[in-house]
Amino acid sequence: MAETMISYRYTWMIHDYIESVVDQREYQRAGGTCWRNPFSCFMCHAANILLQQYMNKTINDAVILDGTYGEGRFWKACKKRIRMLIGVDIYDRKKIVAPDIFIKGDIVSSKTIDALREYAPFDLIVIDPPYSTGITSTYARPADHANSFQWERIVKNIDKLATLQESSAVLLVKGMIRHGSNGIDYATTPFFISDNAHSYRLMHILYYRIIHRRRTTVKRLVYNNYVYVAVLVRK
Ligand SMILES: C[S@@+](CC[C@H](N)C(=O)[O-])C[C@H]1O[C@@H](n2cnc3c(N)ncnc32)[C@H](O)[C@@H]1O
User: Fold this and answer.
1) Which residues contact 142 (CB under 8 A, 6 or more apart)?
2) Residue 75: pLDDT above 90?
3) Taking the model in full, what pTM does it have?
């Protein structure tokens, strides 16, 4: 059965794009793969809904490019359903989920973009570059810290990806809310993204609430933070 909506807990519109909050637990409730990989269930679900909304397709018919593939964790819940998944990364890491095609390279270099033309147009492009917010520093890979400048660099060059997509195709950019103020303030990144994306229109910011549970010797700590996915649509 076709999915028709993302269960937004809260939705509002202050700017000319929609903002919504979803909660990790809403996805975990589905159990199975979603219990252990709620973010993948969120991404697969969001990708499917957005493809239906903007491209009149589902992930079953879609050609998807993940430009910062990493281990491919995003696709754990839906790889089998995707028609074609292309992964790009500057490192050829050990994959949790293997893409159909993998290209080692810098996603915004002309060399990589030229190599990707063979598989274009992409119905959906996903970008999750490393960022160093301080919040996840104890978990993040050292390589991600060393490359944390890539988030800003890739977003500044985001229009280069537009040559791989047709009108109304979707681009998802993952970012993180940062509570400090070193360098770019991640709370203002929707504006930073839309200022650099002249070939795309920012439609939606999906805030995803992550719940961390940690048991210490004295008490059980529960705290949360947010990541977000900016939804851009090719003009
Ligand atoms: C946060 S991880 C992505 C994790 C991935 N979404 C997953 O589910 O496994 C960021 C990735 O971006 C890659 N990266 C950094 N700069 C890049 C660039 N310029 N082009 C392509 N990949 C890049 C890193 O090597 C790293 O694997």
Assistant:
1) none
2) yes
3) 0.90
